[in-house]
């Protein structure tokens, strides 16, 4: 793709030091890094970039004594739970499914925590790992992990949204910071299975805005001949203080009937303001025989009314890259996935952070002309 100036994996599972993991010495079984991926991205006050990396730490051998085991945080520390093998489907390396629950009930083979990694200003080289500032589960709503951070800077504050996972709820939680390294938990923002919450990098009419993506098992059909397809879509919410959020009346970005690539979609990088409007990168999923093919797309939203799409493109901006992931073939467990999670302005180009194959962190430099030429 001619608009891609640089493209590489910058951080892989093997560089994570589990001896410095927040779980080190606290889990009574050997663990390994299933993936180091889906990083939040921002520029630090010193000019370097920060990748807030999701580290999925899993049991090396989860099956013993006729049970499958998983890690759970509790007030008393990290514990191992066990489920009988004859009641679970363990065909997916990322999850297992309870067969006798009566509806879809899942367990996780890993517990995720967040590692701040300081990068060079171009995002291509590691400067420092900040293990002492790792974000870990700290309450019951996060007992199965903290996942998929997205970082936004609004004026002199940074906000980080995460997905917190537990039997109680799968919810969007928010942290805030004055320096993008020391984070304070602000609470639950959106409730059950409302994922991919992205805070706009700027206020609109004095309000904070965010993209959201609620999930469900039932969607109502659009009228015959509609340009839209029923299914998950990117909605909007607004807030006076970035803590308490109200859904916006108008829909946001919806799956288009003209392409299968948006059979499932959700937010990617937090929207940033350009001369023409809010640039938002999002993921679309085309069904295939496994988890689907994840690609990155983009839209330009009106600066005063982000429910109005000014321009978009059905052609993917970033594709999964088998060549990039080739050297890690022995660790690959899913394919055809690029999941974009951050963007920063770098003058004549954008620096974009993504997770590749739910395994590694990918940095892509994209020429700004790509968005003007569409």
TrEMBL record:
InterPro entries: Glyco_hydro_beta-prop_sf, Mannoside_phosphorylase. Keywords: Glycosidase, Glycosyltransferase, Hydrolase, Transferase. Coiled coil: none annotated. GO terms for molecular function: glycosyltransferase activity; hydrolase activity, acting on glycosyl bonds. PANTHER family: GLYCOSIDASE. Belongs to the glycosyl hydrolase 130 family. This is Glycosidase. It comes from Sphingobium amiense.
């Amino acid at each position: 793709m001619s608009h891609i100036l640089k493209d590489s994996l910058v951080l892989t599972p093997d560089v994570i030091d589990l001896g410095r993991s927040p779980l080190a010495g606290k889990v009574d079984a050997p663990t390994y890094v299933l993936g180091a991926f889906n990083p939040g991205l921002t520029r630090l006050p010193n000019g370097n970039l920060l990748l807030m990396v999701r580290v999925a730490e899993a049991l090396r051998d989860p099956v013993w004594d006729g049970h499958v085991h998983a890690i759970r945080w509790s007030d008393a520390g990290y514990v191992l739970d066990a489920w009988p093998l004859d009641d679970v489907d363990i065909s997916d390396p990322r999850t297992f499914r309870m067969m006798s629950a009566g509806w879809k009930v899942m367990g996780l083979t890993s517990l995720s925590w967040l590692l701040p990694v300081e990068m060079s200003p171009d995002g291509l080289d590691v400067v420092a790992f900040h293990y002492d500032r790792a974000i870990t589960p700290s309450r019951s709503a996060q007992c199965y992990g903290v996942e998929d951070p997205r970082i936004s800077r609004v004026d002199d504050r940074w906000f980080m949204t995460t997905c917190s996972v537990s039997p109680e709820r799968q919810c969007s939680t928010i942290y805030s910071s004055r320096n993008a390294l020391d984070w304070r938990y602000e609470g639950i923002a959106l409730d059950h299975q409302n994922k991919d919450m992205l805070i706009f990098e700027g206020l609109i009419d004095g309000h904070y805005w965010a993209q959201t993506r609620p999930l469900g098992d039932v969607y109502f059909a659009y009228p015959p001949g509609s340009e839209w397809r029923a299914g998950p879509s990117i909605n909007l919410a607004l807030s006076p203080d970035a803590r308490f959020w109200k859904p916006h009346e108008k829909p946001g970005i919806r799956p288009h009937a003209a392409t299968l690539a948006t059979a499932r979609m959700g937010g990617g990088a937090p929207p940033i303001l350009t001369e023409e409007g809010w640039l938002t990168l999002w993921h679309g999923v085309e069904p295939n025989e496994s988890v689907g093919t994840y690609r990155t797309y983009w839209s330009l939203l009106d600066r005063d009314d982000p429910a109005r799409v000014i321009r978009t493109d059905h052609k993917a901006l970033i594709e999964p890259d088998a060549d990039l992931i080739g050297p890690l073939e022995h660790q690959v467990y899913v394919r055809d996935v690029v999941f974009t999670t951050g963007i920063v302005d770098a003058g004549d180009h954008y620096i974009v952070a993504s997770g590749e194959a739910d395994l590694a962190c990918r940095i892509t430099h994209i020429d700004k002309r790509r968005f003007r030429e569409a």
